[in-house]
Description:
Radius of gyration: 13 Å
Distance between the termini: 38 Å
Shape: extended
Number of domains: 1
Amino acid sequence: MKQLDFGFPIPEGHEIIFRASITLKNGKVIFAKQYGLRGFPILVPVAKAG
């Protein structure tokens, strides 16, 4: 499988997680499999320990 290239650097203090489904603002749930993906990439801040 080809490595994904996001086309931008991941900001410091953030990481990419993958989810099999996402919920749109109108409440509709869509699944990555419907779009030929294994998961949707989501940029999230990393929690600081301490």
